[in-house]
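User: Could you check the structure of this?
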Amino acid sequence: MGDYSKALEFYEKSLKIREIALPPNHPDLATSYNNIGQVYYHMGDYSKALEFLEKSHKIYEIALPPNHPDLATSYNNIGGVYDEMGDYSKALELYKKALVIWQISLPPEHPHTKDVLISIEFVEKKL
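Assistant: Sure, the predicted structure tokens are below.
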């Protein structure tokens, strides 16, 4: 198991530097928010995870084209949080958005596409 408090400390330091050095909608800021959100996700703090993952997603929506793979990753990550929280309808919606983008932007046999198909299958069984 990882040292989440240490990871959080360094990701937050990185975020502070990026907030000073970069414009507010820079994709690297989104990456920092995503990283922090992922730490909270692994710690089981889903409300904090959503807070940071949604900040990340808003930047990606502004800064990236609509079919960019990183936008799909963002949908997938947020979907994973809703999945863990038991909101399977919301998780399914987000997983499907990720799937559509990855099917357009990645090769057919890419692991991301396969993984999200598995997530969709599992969530559909929970509904």
